[in-house]
Amino acid sequence: MINNNFIVVNSPKCAYGVYSYQYNGAIQDISYVNNTIIGNSYAVCGMEIFEDNPYIENNVISVVGNYSTGIVAGMKKNGTISNNYIVATGSNNGTDPTGDPLLPYNSVAVKVKGNTSIRNNRIESTGIGINLVKEGAVTIENNI
Questions:
Q1: Beta carbons within 8 Å of 116's beta carbon, 6+ residues apart
Q2: Strand 36-51 to strand 6-10: parallel, antiparallel, or no bridges (unpaired)?
């Protein structure tokens, strides 16, 4: 469980608040609950999560940059994103400094791939609110 953390990331080029990716084996059933993540960079991502069954709830994520992403997630099986407050503010101008194909050339609050439930979140973005990327069944309910 990743619980009750206050994370601040600042960088001139690229910053990630939480980065969790399956490289050499399964990462699964991780809960990300009650965290505050603040980021400021040219390209900034609050959470990049690629694993089995992540549960992302009651987090405050605020990212500001040229390109800003609140949560980008690839659900290997199923995932839940609920009751979060996500702000992704960006100017959406310039070139890609990261080489990370998952971060868009636009500011986006939530970008998901795979079976995902996105419920009861407050979402603010200067670009895209929720971006669905091929594959999986997605439920989107009661978001503001």
A1: 73, 75, 78, 79, 80, 81, 136, 138, 139
A2: parallel
